[in-house]
Amino acid sequence: MSERDDGDWTEEEIESEFPIGDGTAETEAIVHCPHCGEANEIALDPGSGSDQEYVEDCQVCCRPWLMYVRYARDGSAVVEVYASDT
Q1: Which of 2, 56, 61, 77 qualifies as a cystine partner to 26, CB 3.0-4.6 A?
Q2: Residue 7: its pLDDT value, please?
Q3: So what's the pLDDT on residue 2?
Q4: CA pair distance 75, 14, nearest whole angstrom
């Protein structure tokens, strides 16, 4: 697996992390803001590991969320979003 500072992964690098036959890694999801309830389309980065935790702001109300993303071996992502006070 390649470590790069720019955060952008090539399709080849994604496939090496999630080998052919295991499925394609999800790279986007729709989540609902825990503050305002609006739907937001977010980008996912499978190259950041199978278990991820980070803060992202709502595209509508700009309030922060705590995001948990877990990738399964088949490349599917489970995304959990919680209200954050940070």
Answers
A1: 77
A2: 63
A3: 45
A4: 10
- pLDDT value of residue 59: 96
Q: Are 25 and 69 in contact (CB under 8 A)?
A: no
Please state the domain extents for the chain.
Answer: 11-83
The helix (H) or strand (E) run that includes residue 14 is: helix 11-17
- Cα separation, 34 vs 21, whole angstroms: 35
CA distances from 20 to 15, 16, 36, 51 (A): 6, 8, 39, 20
* Closest C-alpha to 55, from 71, 63, 1, 32: 63
Residue 26 sits at the vertex; the CA angle it makes with 21 and 27, to the nearest 5 degrees, is: 135
pLDDT per residue over 21-77, tens digit each? 445 889 999 999 999 999 999 999 988 889 999 999 999 999 999 999 999 888 899
Structure-token pair, residue 82: 């919680």
